[in-house]
Amino acid sequence: MLFPVPPADPQHVDFVQLAQDSIAAARRRREHDAEAAYLVALGVMQQFHAPS
User: Fold this and answer.
1) N or C, fewer C-beta in 10 Å, the chain?
2) Under the phi-then-psi rule, with left for phi > 0, alpha for psi from -120 to 50, and beta for the rest, what region is 4?
3) Rounded to the nearest 5 degrees, what angle is found at the Cα of 13, between the Cα atoms of 50 and 18?
4) pLDDT tens, 24-38?
5) CA 39/CA 27 separation, integer angstroms
6) Cβ contacts of 12-15, under 8 Å, gap ≥ 24
């Protein structure tokens, strides 16, 4: 499994975007179990995400 390059600013990580990118990558690779896991993680993050 390949992981994206870490951001230049280690203090700021957009985990929602990281999950969305991971979902897209899993779909391209047809890794249905990984896609499902990322979708669950994204759902949890969105549930508890404070509005900006």
Assistant:
1) C
2) beta
3) 90
4) 999 999 999 999 999
5) 11
6) 15/45
Three state DSSP letters for the chain: CCCCCCCCCCCCCCHHHHHHHHHHHHHHHCCHHHHHHHHHHHHHHHHHCCCC
List phi, psi (to 5°) of 34: -65, -40
Q: Report phi then psi at 38, rounded to 5.
A: -65, -35
pTM, full prediction? 0.72
1 in Cβ contact with 22 (< 8 Å): no
